Structure formats: structure tokens, C-alpha cells
Amino acid sequence: MTLDEPIAVCVDAGTTVIKAVVFDAEGRELAVTRRDTAVHHPRRGLAEQDMDEVWRAVVDTVREAVRQVARPVRFLALTAQGDGAWLVDEAHRPVRPAVLWNDARAADVVRGWGADGTLESAFRINASLTNAGLPNAILRALDVEEPATLDRAHAVLTCGGWLFLRLTGVLGIEASEASAPWLDLRTRAYSDQLLDRYGLTHRRALLPPLLTGDQRMAEVTGDVAEQLGVPAGTPVVLAPYDIVSTALGTGTTTPGQATCVLGTTLCTETMIDAPDPDGEPSGLTLDFGMPGLLMRAYPTLAGTGVLDWLVDLLGLADHAELSALAALAPPGAEGLRVLPYLSPAGERAPFLDPAASGLVTGMLFAHRREHLARAVLEGLAHVIRDCLAAAPHRPVELALCGGGAASELWCQLIADITGVPAVCTEDTQVGAKGALLFALTLLGDHPDLTTAAEALVRTRRRFEPEPATRALHDREHAEFLATRELAAARWSDWRTHD
């Protein structure tokens, strides 16, 4: 390694943290810089972000990363949080704060589409089940609540599209982010039939150009290059959005392989070779522009936010303390069970119910804090098992990543409860690593993603299912599903609305 050896800087723009990761030619992390970003809640159930604040965080992290490593930058690659609605005008300026993927304002829209058959008929075209955080549902809600805002807008982007626009001046949306709401996966093009079903034909002009092939690569503009501290003309690659890039970063690049992101959303992802719009409507099918490769994704609304809630509730310091507490309780938490559906937007995968809510059952005087901690981790693992059961193929191995993968106890629980061996890679920044693999493939350094992954992804730890607890967890899972079915009949009654 020499001081003049080029580096790659990969941005992972998450919902609450923006990271810039520097990789060397062997795909090893040299530096990671971070900036927090705020999520605003103007009223209950809403989740928004200041688009310029997100952009400034990207500039700051990249500039700091480039200064830290002080070597030539070969290219920038970008992945970001998905879904939502990031609206810009003709001057490419925001017309309102971004509406995020976990916003619930469109819950009633989705309920209506479920009742009138729109959700199922759309699934037959795009093999994805719309939820309240997708841009089609958000636009439908804004068309009623803020029609003047949409009148001022020129395009509806995603976070990745917004940042690519600021970096390069190129307006567009990457295929993986366009797939779920807008694309006919048989033609891989925008579907006017879908727009008609969503009642959005009159907003057709808001759909930005679809970026495919080499269109996902452009040069950073001169003024932005100066802000970032990179040469003008440095290539920028728009990688698929974070749930796809994260799977790629774990080495999940061939049909049948699976990944679960233990993050704000528990996103269970399986690679497939063809869409199945005739199957049971659930989850998302994402086309990210690689021939013969698509993703079936089940991005739940249950995730590490549930752990954040429990850490606060129990007065703990962090997730590590929560995991240590859970280790004090036996498998099965001595009968304590938790349905971890705490999001104000309900749940979206593998089933869709905006009214879904959490439930604790089996609680007795004998239960202590450690039992609740264990029951929450186990409940989230049952959510992952539920998603794997909905996927087209049972995987032989499940890659785990995200912040939750730092807990060896939780990783082992997931292997035990799903019955699938789990693996973690050496990388701490798996989304950025996936953006790196995608960029190197697009640039021609590797002939395909699998070859890139074989060269650059390294396994750190493997967790084998514990045979002694298999029968227990099988019984627990059957109970988990039966309890949820009973609770679903009352969720709408239990919910309160502003």
C-alpha cells in the first residue's frame, strides 16, 4: 500500500446517520466518518427530514473522510435510505421536507387500496405489496392534503436520487427504488396502468427519468467537488438503495442466498432470478439492473427501534447492556412472549396491516427485566423467521448485518429460532461495502457481483442452530403466529388516532 494508491469513498445515507467509508483496493475499511441527522415528527405518525440538512451531512462526512486518508480518490459511490417522497421543483430545490419511509400519513390510503383490490391488482404487475411508506401512497395522501405542494413540484425522488442530483446535477431514480411503486417488472419500465390504479395519472409528470446501466454513473460537478475536497470530474456511482446494497455487501449475490439487516427495519432479503407476480401478495420485488437477478425483500417496521424503546423503558445504557441482561434468562424466557409491532405505521412485511400493534403475553410475577429483554429479542427473531417462510426459497445460510449484529446473543438466537445457520462478515459498514461492489462491477473491475464479492467479502463469524432448543422454538413460533392472528382481529379497536 502506498500513499498514492487510489481509494474509493462510499456514502451510506441512513435515516438517522450519514456515513462516509473509505476503502482500499482490497476492499478493506480505512476510515469511517459519521454525522447524525434529525427525523422530525410534526404530528403523531409523521416522519420527515430536512433535505438540505441531509445533503450538508453528506458533504461534511465525505470531506472529513478524504482529509483523514489523504490519498487520491478514484470514485464516489452512494447508497441511501429508500422509499419516501423527496420532492424537488424545476430548480432542483426541495418544495417541502422529505416524507420518510416510516411515515404513517398514508395509512388510510393503503387501507382503502386493500379494500378495493388496488393492492392485489398492483402486485400482479410489480410483484410488490404497497405500504404507507412508498411514494405512490405518500403522493396520494399529499394530493388530498397538500395539492398545491405537488403543483409546485417537478419530480419525486428518493434520498439516493436527491443526493445524486446534488452531487452530479443528474435528475433521476435508480431502478431498485422505482420498482415497488412504479415499474412493470415484465417490461422493466414505468407502468401507466399502475398510475391509473393508484389514482395518480394526473401526477405522471412527477416521475423522474429512470436511471439504468451507465446512466447510474456521472461526474461530480466542479463546485461540489471543491466542497468535498475531490478533483472535479470524479466519477459518482448511484448504487441500489440501502437494503439491496447491504445484501450485496454481505456477499448475497446469487439466487437463493439471503441476508437480514438488523437495523431500524429488520429487512430479510432473498435473491431470485425472476419475479413472481402470481404469488401471495407480500413484501417487495426489486430490480436493480443486473441481468437475471432481482431481490425479494421483506422490510419490516419492527427492528432495532424496539430495542431502543426497551433500553429507555428499563433505564439501560445501550443495546449491549440489553443483550447482557437478556443472556440471564433461559431460552423461551420462561413463557413470556412479545409481539414486537410497535411502529405507529403498523407492519408492512411479510404481512401488511397499518393497525398492527405490540402485545405482551404470558407475564407473571416471577418474570423480571431479563425475561422481558430476552422475550423482545426472541420476538424479533420470530419476525425474521416469519419473513423467511414467506420468501420463495429456504436459504441454506443467512447473512446478518446492521447494528444488531454486534450482539452475538441475538445472532445466535436468530440461528436457533429460524433453524438457519447465520454468518457475519468482517465489515462494519456493509451497506457501503455493497455500494463499493456495485460500483466496481459497473466500472468493469469485476465481470459480475459474485466475482466482486468473492474477491472482497470475508466471513468473520458463523452461528450454527442449537439442536437442543429447536423443538422449543418451533412451538414458540406456532404460538407466535396464533397469537398474532387472534390479536389482528382487535388491532383496529386498540389503535387510537389523532
Tell me what you see in this structure.
By secondary structure, the protein is of the alpha+beta class. The protein has 2 domains: 7-238, ATPase, nucleotide binding domain (Nucleotidyltransferase, domain 5); 251-498, ATPase, nucleotide binding domain (Nucleotidyltransferase, domain 5). It is 38% helix and 20% strand. It is globular. It has 18 helices and 23 strands.
Summarize the topology.
Layout (H helix, E strand, L loop, with lengths): L6 E7 L3 E7 L5 E8 L11 E2 L1 H19 L3 E8 L5 E3 L9 E2 L7 H10 L1 H9 L8 H11 L1 H6 L2 E3 L1 H10 L4 E2 H8 E2 L4 E2 L1 H7 L11 E2 L5 E3 L2 H7 L6 E4 L3 H8 L8 E5 L3 E7 L11 E7 L2 E7 L4 H11 L4 H8 L10 E3 L19 E3 L7 H22 L7 E4 L6 H11 L3 E4 L4 H13 L6 H8 L2 E5 L6 H19 L2 H4 L4
- pLDDT averaged over residues: 95
The CA-CA distance between the termini, in Å, is 59 Å
Globular, elongated, flat, extended or rod-shaped: what is the shape?
globular
Using the coordinates above, name the CATH class of the largest domain: Alpha Beta
Biggest pleated-sheet summary: 7 strands, mixed
How many DSSP helices? 18
Under the CATH scheme, the architecture of the largest domain is 2-Layer Sandwich
Tell me the Rg in angstroms. Answer: 22 Å
Strands in their spatial order, largest beta sheet:
17-18-16-15-21-22-23
> What is the helix content?
25-40%
Task: Output the CATH homologous superfamily of the largest domain.
Answer: ATPase, nucleotide binding domain
- Decide which structural class fits the backbone: alpha+beta
Proportion of residues in extended strands: 15-25%
Poorly predicted spans:
none
How many domain modules?
A: 2
Q: Strand tally, please?
A: 23
Remind me, CATH topology of the largest domain?
Nucleotidyltransferase, domain 5
